[in-house]
Amino acid sequence: MRRLAGCMVAGVMAVAMPAAEARERVTPSTAPPAWAIESADYAGDVQDQIIKLDVRYTIRTIRDGWVEIPLAIPGATITGIEIEKKTGEAYIMPRGDTYVLATSKKGTFKVRVKCSSILSQDSQYEGVSLGIPRATFSTLTLTVPRKEVELRQADALYVEREAAAGRDGTKLTARLGAADRIDLRWRTKPATPVTVEPVVYGEVHTLVTIEEQLARVMSIMAYRMAQGETKELIVRLPADMNILNVRGPGIDDWRVADADGHKTLTVTLNFVLKDAGYQLVVEGEQPIQEGGTSYALPEITLVGVKQERGYVAVARSGSIEVSAGSVEGASRVDVRELPATLSSLSGSLAILAFKYHQHPFQVAVSLARHQDHAVLSAIAELGRLQTVVSRQGALLTRASYLIKANKKQFLEVALPQGATLWSCIVNGKAVKPVEGSEHLMVPLDASTESAAAVAVELVYFEQRPAFEWSGHMTLQGPVLDVPTTISNWSVYAPDDVKLFRIRGNLERGAAAVDFLDEPFVQLAMNADGSFSRTVDEEKDDKRAEPGKLLNPKKWQKERTARLARGVASGTDGYTDAVAERQAPQSPSEVGAGVYGGGGNEQERPERSYREDMDDLISRLAGRSKETGILPLKIQLPKSGKAYHFNRLMASSESLTLEASFVHVPMPVGFLAFLAMVLLPLGGFGLTRFRLLG
What we know:
This protein is of the alpha+beta class. The strands form 9 sheets. An 8-stranded mixed beta sheet has the order 33-32-36-30-29-39-42-41, with no helix packed on it. Strands 4-7-2-1-10-13-12 form a 7-stranded mixed beta sheet, with no helix packed on it. Strand 8 and strand 9 (126-131) form a beta hairpin.
């Protein structure tokens, strides 16, 4: 029996255990909430991109006991909250950034909340987007001050639309249900914008450059928008002004139209000009009556501008003289009072300036035209002649010049009578001379500016009678069609030929190469504009500190002094610089020249003067002359006694040297010398012997 009873108890417990587990699974693990928001009604309207809402909550507490009910609206700013109806004690208390309803009694409470939010907008829609407390059922009523509101397709399922009673707008009613967020968007036709009359201030700065029969006008117009907005700028211009260019940021288009007695320039921008400044630049030209003695400055007016002021600066060009004339509605000011815009635009060219504060104004200037006076178009700043004379009477002359020309195309040269041109070099490059009507025409380098000198080198040959015992010799230099400031002439005669009674239109000695306005630092430049280097200049660089060159002023001073010493001593200042740069270096190049002047002087074998000249004459005299080919670079051998002459300010006359000579060849010269020394000594000894005897 006991065993049976134990089995029955165990069976009952086994049956009871699953039933208890089942009840535990069915029973909620947490107690039901102590409160619930039964309804939430949101009502409001849109005012100037702001949504203002008035919310009423109906809240029910289910049991007694202290409870706090959060009243948060994410995305909105709560501007007011109050309890309209309560059961027992209840309070509104702040919790963090929001509020809670605190009560200890069960019952029904009505709470009113006022809040504001910014209207959300995107590229297509605008609307309201807020987080709300979850209620059993929520409703939104919103008045939009727009007509023909178009909802999104998803919103149209639960939103009702109707015209707002007594208001110009649309009333939207949305049934939200148990939602925890409001997201309602719509597309509307924008209301007619309120037209605001633009208020613009302007300032006009105009530069007028008067030429012979034309006035060039550049006007800078500064706009300042004080109120409203615009995309169009209108300018009134004189009827005879031709518009060349209109510049400014964001210009979409500009057009010119003829009006009654004037022209109208309309500029359209690709953006709205609002609360900002803008600068417009107009360039044009206005004809001046031929031979007219007066010119009225252009009056440029900004149309639609509330207040305008401006300046007009006058500049001149060419041989015309401008003076102030009649002035009405404006006042004359000093050119130094011009604003920075005009000062930088005109530089120091402005000679008259006027200022005005109103329209219309009239300013006229008087014009006086003057005839241009003829000035020198070209000049040879330095001339250098070197003549080598042989015993056989052959003369080889190198004439080098530094020519400054104002776009002069050809240098006209008259060679001495009977002279034959052998070489023509311009700026270190061989050129083809041409034959003019009477004289030789040397083409100049057209790419060189007028302030830069062009190096011209001519080598010509003359044949004279051979030197006898004595005689007379006359030398003439080339004649240029431009004056020469300084001319130096060096004549190299054989050692056994003595020149005396030298006369002509030159002075003895070499003139120092120096100028008043600037040191004549370098007489020849490379094709790329860099200076030619000499041995002395290389030494200067070695004396300088590593990584640092000599002071430019010190270099110029030493270079000028060195050049002056070279000219005074008879060495070549200009042509040697060119020769050093162009002399052949390789043996093949030496053989290609007339004389091997590019090699090392110390390595060249000793040669007599007669051998040098005989070899030169034989090689050049046998060379046939041809046209259509570039001339050769001719180097002159320097040997014998040098005679130096100079001439300042040579114009159109030829440089002339006349001299007598005596040729005393060796050993006759040596015997004559002995006779001249021994005969007086013998006579003196004979006389002394007689006296003693």
